[in-house]
Design a protein that fits this description.
The protein is mainly alpha-helical and about 500 residues long. Helices cover about 75% and strands about 0% of the residues.
Length: about 500
């Protein structure tokens, strides 16, 4: 018999699942080409779920349920809340684009998005290897379908096939690694795995072997080198509204899953997995920024930008434990900096792709960097929003991207390790190289002649949300303390359990 606290741990997931099914049924009777009732119900569902998770997070209590298979804590609740908000913003930005391209003949875009969000919630709240894998598969299967949603577009179908093949391989890596850890520890429960490893009554070689495959699976979801092959092709080939979806909220889920597996379960093996994260971070910063210099397609450039940005997240994750010694302050600073970086990166990505979606017209995608030529003359507001996003990604003050990079670098340097200080210097150099391709887009928007005299127009909801999104990047850059303290408190509460 399942007690009440078990249900309490998954109330938001239950609401999300029930409403996804209800919306799918309601949509059968919707005749409007814009799917307005489905769209409104989806936004209301996401708003309710976000408020529920915010209430859970503010309460700060940790709940375990379903035989300890799921956990609801402050870190997980905030990540779920941010993921729901990101999905809500994605729906606002993506609906006009999808309607122009006949992607709303049915309500699949909305229902599949809700199911993908449900997969993210399951991943973030998992306290058992099987639940982790269940959430991952729910997210990825919905994502494959969303990428292929534009059935008359060969590039989208090709991107979906690449995503499916590489995603299946990454899922196999993760599942094989989890099975090896289960074989070594005799448990699927993440907490019991931690205790078994800490007790030392296991075969270290088998555990390390399993950890290698787990890190490979996590690397694919984060989109870091050498598991980045899918990112540029899927970003470019998918419909832009779906590119925004897979490039924003899932990063929060991937971070949550990484924290659950590597920190909650495999922290005693930190010396082993930190070495892998370091190599992946260095390669991601190097390849992401150098390859980004050569791109002319804006979506592909942002894909390589994502790879380099995730390299910074890995730097934060690998700097918490020094030579196997767990220091509470170092752990808090490192993991809270990584969480802060992921949240602010998602916020920046939403605004950047929001502008791209806004510029796209029926029959014209506005995907090339040259398509933004003279945007300032056509629309100073949207050129300013895009410039804010690009400056933030480049880490230029006073925008939030600068503070995000600074917090990760501080976590690295404060460890006192010579290798970590060298990594911080390398990250700064790579950021300077990456700033070139961000500033190149700004130059095109402000100094090149426009290719068309077409004015840029947007629905009121899109214009309002996009303006608020850009304003948040500036406000959080000037006043980052609130969000940083929130992330630190969430990490402390999560680690305390």
């Amino acid at each position: 018999m399942i007690d009440n606290i078990s249900w309490l741990a998954i109330y938001p997931e239950i609401v999300l699942l029930v409403m996804a099914c209800v919306i799918a049924l309601v949509d059968l009777g919707v005749k409007s080409c814009g799917r307005a009732p489905t769209y409104i119900l989806t936004l209301l569902t996401l708003l309710v779920v976000a408020v529920l998770e915010a209430m859970y997070a503010r309460n700060g209590t940790t709940f375990y349920g379903w035989g300890n298979m799921v956990v609801s804590d402050a870190m997980g609740s905030w990540l779920k809340c941010f993921a729901a908000v990101a999905m809500m913003i994605t729906m606002v930005y993506g609906r006009p684009y999808a309607a122009d391209r006949d992607m709303l003949r049915g309500g699949e875009m909305f229902t599949l998005s809700l199911f993908s969000l449900l997969g993210m919630f399951v991943m973030i709240g998992a306290n058992n290897f099987l639940v982790v894998y269940l959430g991952l598969e729910l997210l990825t299967l919905a994502s494959y379908a969303l990428v292929a949603l534009r059935r008359d577009h060969s590039q989208s179908i090709e991107a979906a096939m690449k995503y499916f093949v590489l995603g299946a391989m990454a899922s196999g890596f993760l599942l094989y690694g989890l099975s090896m850890i289960y074989g070594a520890t005799g448990s699927l429960d993440i907490g019991q795995v931690f205790q078994a490893i800490n007790g030392g009554q296991i075969r270290h070689q088998v555990l390390v072997f399993g950890t290698v495959f787990v890190v490979a699976g996590l690397g694919f979801k984060l989109g870091v080198v050498p598991f980045h092959m899918w990112v540029p092709d899927v970003y470019q080939g998918a419909p832009t509204s779906i590119t925004l979806l897979i490039g924003s909220a899932p990063k929060l889920a991937a971070f949550g899953m990484t924290m659950r597996l590597l920190v909650d379960g495999l922290l005693p093996l930190a010396f082993d997995w930190q070495q892998m994260l370091m190599v992946m971070a260095v390669c991601s910063l190097l390849i992401g920024n150098l390859a980004g210099l050569m791109q002319t397609n804006l979506k592909r450039m942002l894909a390589y930008s994502t790879i380099s940005q995730m390299g910074f997240v890995l730097l934060g994750l690998m700097s918490g434990v020094i030579h196997g010694n767990v220091d509470a302050n170092a752990v808090e600073n490192a993991y809270s900096a990584a969480m802060f970086y992921v949240v602010t990166y998602v916020l920046t990505t939403l605004a950047a792709f929001g502008v791209i979606l806004l510029l796209a017209r029926d029959g014209f995608e506005s995907e090339e960097i040259a398509d933004l030529a003279g945007l300032n003359q056509r629309s100073p507001l949207y050129a300013g929003v895009m410039a804010i996003c690009l400056f933030s990604m480049a880490g230029i003050p006073p925008l939030v991207g600068f503070y995000a990079k600074l917090s990760v670098l501080q976590a690295l340097v404060s460890s006192g390790e010579t290798s970590h200080i060298a990594l911080a210097v390398f990250a700064v150099i790579m950021s300077l190289i990456g700033a070139f391709y961000y500033l190149r887009v700004v130059k095109v928007m402000y100094f090149d002649k426009p290719l068309t005299a077409t004015t840029v127009s947007a629905p009121m909801d899109v214009r309002t949300v996009l303006t608020l999104n850009a304003a948040a990047l500036l406000v959080l850059g000037l006043l980052p303390g609130g969000l940083m303290n929130l992330c630190a408190d969430a990490i402390v509460r999560a680690l305390a359990t």
